[in-house]
Amino acid sequence: MPLEVIQADTLDTRIQPDTQSKLSRPHPALLGSLTPNVSPEQVINFSPGPTSLPKAVEQTITDNFNKPGLTSLALSHRSPQFIAILEHTIAATKRVMNIPDDYEVLFTHGGGHGQFAALPLNLCKNQSDIATYVVNGTWSERGRDEAQKYCQVNTIDGSNTQTGQYNDFPQLTEADIDPDSKYLYLCSNETVNGIELHHLPTLPVSRQHIPLVVDASSDFSTKPIDWHRSNIGVLFACASKNIGHPGLTLTIVRRDLLGQDKASPLCPGVFNYTTNSDAGNLWNTPATFNIEVVGILMDWLDENGGVEANKQRAIAKSQVIYDVIDNSNGFYSTPITDKSLRSRMNLPFNIKGGNSELTDQFLIESWELGMVGLRTLTPFGVGDYLRASLYNGVTEQQATSLAVFMQRFAHDNS
Ligand code: PMP
Fold this sequence. Notes:
Layout: H1 3-14, H2 17-22, E1 44-45, H3 55-66, H4 80-96, E2 103-108, H5 111-123, E3 130-135, H6 138-147, E4 152-157, E5 184-187, E6 189-190, E7 195-196, E8 212-215, E9 232-238, E10 249-254, H7 273-278, H8 288-303, H9 306-326, E11 332-333, E12 346-351, H10 356-368, E13 371-372, E14 386-389, H11 396-413
Parallel strand pairs: 1-13, 3-4, 3-5, 5-8, 8-9
Antiparallel strand pairs: 2-10, 6-7, 9-10, 11-12, 12-14
């Protein structure tokens, strides 16, 4: 019998049930619980995703699904009713995000990770084709690692030469970008590290023929995109942060990059941009409900001032928290010192240099007030920092509530 099993059995017989219940269990806040003992309206979800959508969007979803008749959960994806939903979502996304007509809007499967593989498989016909990856955080690193299976990757390393940490975005010089690169990949918001590009970079003149590929999973819809000026070839966003629910990825592809002659012959059909574009997003069964949700979210953005107003909200929400951090005399600190790169979406911060007792106390007290998701498990562990994620589902008032709590906590514990 394996050792682990023997130990577990022994423990079970030694500890009586009532003794077991008395053993102190960690506070739910420290286990990442998202259901504090407050009324549901008081919960503020600061999770990095999946997370909440704006209340009005959640209400429309509920209303739509309470109507009699078939909803997108039950509609055949080839029915005229669902086609109307699909067309609406595409039109609303194009309108809100000013997507030019030479781009195809695809709804793909497999999340962000699916696109990590799909990109080289669609844009590199041969395994010897070159792609350049800017790696300045955990997600661009993952994207690069996946691409290495399918093409030759050149890395522009954005890690700090002394600490090895990611807290910057590297200069993009001519010397670092192979002119034969099929694309240059970057992540416009590093969700874990809290580094955001508020403007996409311009490549050196001699490299401007290289299309940009952007992982905008955690910042899409929160600032305008100048598609042509930034020479965007492909931009993708997994839905579960700002625009919808997991199970759907929005992948926007410039049409000149389509064509089976450009893709690897090994590219699976479900990942193949040309196959899915030719089939009008219906090559296989798309995530019907999730597509409807993206349309509802885009309508909400339209009704609330569009993407420019959303950017202003993102600035205001993040500013109120960064102000508390910067004015806390070092009680709080954030690893991104270059303010022009600080994420408006994911704000990492620690307490007294990472003091674990105070951090636990902070998590418990904020949780008791209904604030959740400030420390979640990632594929990279819990990380050294707490993180407040301020996606579209978080209001300015809710961000202010966190800022006020942080101020009070610092005052009481300095
Ligand atoms: N890219 C970024 C920037 C992300 O934040 C995430 C998920 N947190 C991913 C990619 C991976 O997406 P998924 O889990 O949907 O594969």
